[in-house]
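Journal club prep, shared notes

We agreed each person brings one worked example of a sequence with its structure written out as tokens. Mine is Tripeptidyl-peptidase 2. I'm keeping it raw so we can talk through how to read the token line rather than staring at a rendered picture. Sequence first:
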Amino acid sequence: MASTMDCDFPVCGLLPKKETGAWSFCNKYPNYDGRGVTIAVLDTGVDPGAQGLQKTSDGRPKIIDIIDVTGSGDVEMSTVIQATDGILTGLTGRKLTIPTSWNNPTGMYHVGVKGAYELFPKMLCDRLTKEQREKQWDPAYRVAVTTATRALEEFNVQHTDLSQENKLEKEELQARLDVLANLDKKFSYCGAVYDCIVFHDGTTWRACVDTTEKGDLESCTLLASYREEQQFSTIGTSDMMNYSVNIYEDGNVLEIATGSGAHGTHVASIAAAYFPDEPDRNGIAPGAQIVAIKIGDRRLGSMETGTALVRAMIRVIELKCDLVNYSYGEASHWSNTGRICEVLKEAVTKHGVIFVSSAGNEGPALSTVGSPGGTTSHIIGVGAYVSPEMMGAAYSLRDKLPGMQYTWSSRGPTQDGALGVNISAPGGAITSVPNWTLRGSQLMNGTSMSSPNACGGIALVLSALKAEGVSYSPSSVQRALENTALNIDTVEKFALGHGLIQVDKAYEYLVEHADVQEQRVKFGINCGNGNRGIYLREKHQLERASEFTVTVEPQFTHTAEQRVKIDFEMRFALSCDTAWVSCPRHLDLMNMSRTFQIKVNPQGLTPGAHFTEICAYDVKAPRKGPIFRVPITVIIPIEVEDRIQWKQTCRCVKFSPGDIRRTFISVPEGATWAAVSIRCVESERGARFLLHLLQLCPKQWFKSVQFEKYLTLTENGDSTPQTFPVIGGLTLEFTIAKWWANLGDVCIDYDIEFHGLKPYSSNISMHAAEGILRVNVRSTLKYEEILPSVCLKTLVQPLRPIEYKIRCLSAERDSMPNNRQVYALETTFTFQQNKSGEVTPDCSLLSNLLYESEYESQLWMLFDANKQLICSGDAYPNQYTQKLEKGEYTLKLQIRHEKRELLERLKDIAVLLHHKLNNSISLTIYSSHAQALTGGQRFLVKNLAAGTICPVYVAAVPDDKLPKGVTANHYMTGTMTFAKDENGKKSDTYPFMYVLADQPKKAKPSNSTNSLSSGSVASINSSSNNVNVEKTKEQEYEEALRDLKITWMAKLETWPSVFDELRQTYDDHLPLYVARLHALDSEKERMSRLGEVIDAAQTVIGKIDQQSLLAYYGMKSDVRVNAAAVKSEMDKLKTSLIDASVRLGCAQADVVIEAQKSTSTQGEEREETSVMSTTPQVSAKHVDDTLQQLQQWVDITDSKVHPLAMRHALVHQHHGRALKLLAKVGDDKSTKEIDNNSIELYKLLGWDFCVRHFETWLLVRYPVSYRLF
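Then the structure, token by token:
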């Protein structure tokens, strides 16, 4: 066996360099390995401690700056304090010992606090939570459970006949087990919380993060801003998270830079890692330096934001970076426009930055390139290629296949006709990742990896050009890359772009053509309406030959001299290699836009995708290759062959690994959904496929009408039919791709069948006040069974801001070149969540717009009543759904732009809260208006012939089925379906909006009924004798004035005088005494006036005839005419009795608890020594009696009784019972007082592991201020 072993590992396939010529280039020019070139890596952050990222090949620091531009690492440091005897009190309350080695001439320190989980990526948080549970929580928890279980078992053995006291004791022991079980079930670790200190040492600002959590600053690292000293530290040996800092605004803002994922370190390592002892592991440009800019916001799960991108480009320009690698991107609705795209374009055109970006991973369908890499001019978009060497080394395939594009690599063209993918590069690598992953390296793939491979290759070229003094510009470099790229015949142009990057040839091209006059010129192409190419796809575009006016405009770099513009003149030979495009043969171009006409004749082209270019060659030097290009794409769809069943079938289609079969189908007019069936034939094995179907709607991203599904077909097996919506009349791309790494050939059959049930409007809305909505639906293609349904799933609550402000942002971070200041509109919204449920905030005016948005950024943060950040979101609301508990919430929204007047326009912007309904609401549907009006027979299944119209009647939602608390400005959303077929129901859906009307007004009780709660209840009969006595207006006025004064009693410090005044006239008016009780019970000095509280409560209880009240509730039924009014007043009396009894019991319990504390301190001075001397003698027996009497009226588990039940437990020193009740109260509304009380009880029970756990949670749940944007 050993003789067949191959020990020569193909390391060249782990981080591919040979395919692009980078390997041979470095061998030929060893000193041009990226030296003198700075690459800005805009990503999730780069770990400065990761392998290969410490030094360059010539000994310079590899990472010259680390910046977090997202704001997620910011710490507010505006609190300034002075040390006392070398000790600071941090915002966590910990004592921080200042090391004697620190030099702080002013003696003033900025302090702040930051949670570790605000800095760590989710993957690390999950690992630490698991470790915390296994190492810290579980062992101690098991001991506590064992102890509690034994105590209960021993009690049961010793007590067989239980007295009332024993029952309480047993309940206490069981409560401890219940509390422990509940704590374990809800275990959640919040991570460590660190004090942060910033001060000025006389030379620079410095910061220290107390990673010991003990105030031992001597053991912590003192850091300056990373750019100054290139220093970093590690938070802990468990997390292994490396961090650095930056300090802004005179010490008032500390930026702690950590990674929000492993992605950025991997990208940086591909581009420029350097391993002096293992050169095979080097990145593409080991001599290049890196500026690590974190644009992946931790609050959004590492999503990029407009804020981060603008700040990043400010830093790129400021630090004079040569290259940007951007392995991020999103789908966009339109190409090459928007605030962010303009900022990126400015960096390229005015500051000479070469911007390289991933094209996207949304393939294999066409027109799936992402923004900005595939859709934005001036940016080099890179596709992902996999070579045979990569297949063997990185992926361990048993068979080597020909080089190909990855299946998922996005394809062009863009919707405005540009090619989309400029070049391709290897899209996978095994290289370094952050230390916190506990790995040295790992395999990642994607256009995220092809982009840094290409970027590193460009760095090699720039390194040589700089060293040799050869002039270049972003446009000349892009032209050189495209004209020297290696074409691969087996890979389509839409995926490969102009070819696989060839570093050595690009360098030679730039050297040879260094002095050409177009060297600093970008040629702008406009084929009409701002389109950068011609893209014919839809049926109406293909019916005849079309003429287009092409405008070419030279765009000079910002540094071009005026004489250069005057002298510029080029004569071009225009060429196109296809007969279906006609163009002029020549063009003379000077410093102005010139136009020419071209003709595209799609007639006679075979079905499928056709691509060509009009290439412009310099007549003086045609060997330079095309100077500019006009891309032209024509898609020829087929018509559906079976026009009875409207089905298209393909039989026995052979697939090899990586094969892609595209069928473009002209979707029949009226079709609304389709079903695809695939069957594997003639195969000895299963096969993995990617099914991708897509239609393009103008000015909508490709995801709007897209279906994508990974399928595994078994031998001679059928896949489950796949259904999806379609738009009639638009061309559908039906793509099936065999996964590139799925070995073996396979034959499959597949077909697609179209269906059509179409309402007159695709967006259906109904106002509740309409009562009945008629919807006409038509069967468009063939016989279809119809069974309509409407399902409402979401309640939408519009919010308007309660306040707004427009801020001028920090000049250090948010000032564009030429002192263009960025401003921020910050609006505040509040809302009440009435019950637990899922909520999705949506700033709908700006939703689903990022790169193409006219505004720079939109970021919202949602806080609870304690100012704890619950969740955040940005441009894509559907990604940020959060489950909220009952309570009050505050949402803060920030929108940014450099033009203040644009922000003023949005000061009243609305936010929509989408509340997911706990139970969806189905509307009732009828076949006729009469049936809908009378609530008759519901709609039954009907079979509609093609062309038949069927009216459908939708009835309004009954008021009793509406969610509680809805108002007329709310609406509900859901879907309406028409097909009876279950697959059709899932795919052929229409948005349905249900606008709510005012709720019915409840009838008010007659004002002729005297209030039964005016005094004591003598009897039911006597109290009902006065119900028909009419009140005069003067009496009503006097009573209203009385009631107003009563409501104000608890708010006034002078309430006793108001009480004395009213008592003279209304001595028997019960609400007056209830208000007095509330005023006494809510005073700050309550503990010193417990006797008065007890007396007031007893007075209220004494004024209520409990026997009559019991008699009323004992009645089987009340048939009197005023029964409703009597019930209302009786319920008020009962509520007052329960309230007074609870307050009485609480006051009695507080007296006993204070006495117990006094006894336990044994003579120590106490602040409230007057409690026992000013209150009646109260014992635990009084508390027991009050609670027992209360149980006549309300269950002890009722939330109204919780305050007394908790105190009752404490009176008996039953800490488990008290904890159990506290937990119930905390579930409704968590407060710091409740949590502190719980911690004290954990201490009394000896549960130290709970104490430590929840003391940390206190710091997270109750921040001093709202989080910074």
